């Protein structure tokens, strides 16, 4: 095949991932004939991940069948979930199996293109050209999205659509999700309905309408819409995830588990195993949780995609079931794989303390607890902190266990999962009598601070209100309830008194912290909308 001269392709840097040397070289040759001269090669998933961490690739061509431990879909899942790919990177999946179509359509992380062997330079060029055309056309929109300017992105959607109508489906998808994130539910509904009027098979648009119902608090309607999608096709992973979110909002943990069980049957990935294991553990189905975390370990064994949490979660479940010796074996094996993980040692010691106590080796249990306590010093109080409380109870330090539980709840009293797990810890360790004293009183204490600050604000005592919240944040700097209240009170003050740049900076700092603590939270999204509306109002009045 003659060399195809294309200045756009010549600028690209590519990575070919395939365990067969002849295939790697063949694809490299095909890319070279297209004018792509910067082509690296990887024979294993681990080497590919290492390269991608250190190099900004424009194109990744990856074989689906790589080895027994990790396939191409798992590599893509890991890269996307860990945000290792640049927003403009194009991921091509290559397979000899036409059945991959069903895998790709169901997967939550889809490749930009997939191609069936044998590959030709013409096939690759056609896909690259189309994707580059799409990138160029949508660039004004994606630039706005990268700046988190959702209103600007929506405006650009209309502009680009007028100039590039061929990309209408892609544009409507972005416009609908942006409107939904901004809380403009009516606009989002109109956009999703317009997409469905073009093509009735656009599942993302049907799920978008369900998300509008969810955001409006119409959970039964949202559940009905998602159920209808799944009745038409049981393969859509996003639908199961949304069903799980709705079930959790309704307080139905069994339905959450059922949704994740079904999603695992569609895509038996490590991430699905973790979701299934976490849900099973929350409802007390320890045997299913054990099986799920075991599967997660199996999916990622020997791979960089392995996560320390899989072994730690499995060991915790084994302790709870009564297999303390097996738990210690799992921890010992995992320690060699995750010795560079700064969080692993603390959680390992916490679970080991419980295991030794179960085995009656109290000297080792107390030593492990002392180590866990030292390693956890200064670490954010969260659900993992509660396992330290569980260890304290196991080694007979009941008062210390109660203090740890109270501290964790006071640090994040509005976190429903944290509170539920705290109750579970007290029940599992035979301390049900402490639930009202430790859990309920700690929740009330945190809620009281927010309520007092709100009342001071309503009375016009803003400085006093702020001082109350700042005092709470000094004691519990990552309390999401207090951070939300602080952001809200600053915004309320500015909506009444006018713009204050110092307050805008504070609110941005609060929201940035909440983005980390509460990713994808609707409450945080509402605060961002409130901030934007406040800034717009202030600029108009100025």
UniProtKB/TrEMBL annotation:
Keywords: Phosphoprotein. Transmembrane segments: none annotated. It comes from the Bacteria. SMART domains: REC, TPR. The modification 4-aspartylphosphate is found at residue 63. Residues 13-132 form the Response regulatory domain. Pfam families: Response_reg, TPR_19. InterPro entries: CheY-like_superfamily (IPR011006), Sig_transdc_resp-reg_receiver (IPR001789), ST_Response_Regulator (IPR052048), TPR-like_helical_dom_sf (IPR011990), TPR_rpt (IPR019734). This is Tetratricopeptide repeat protein. It comes from Herminiimonas glaciei.
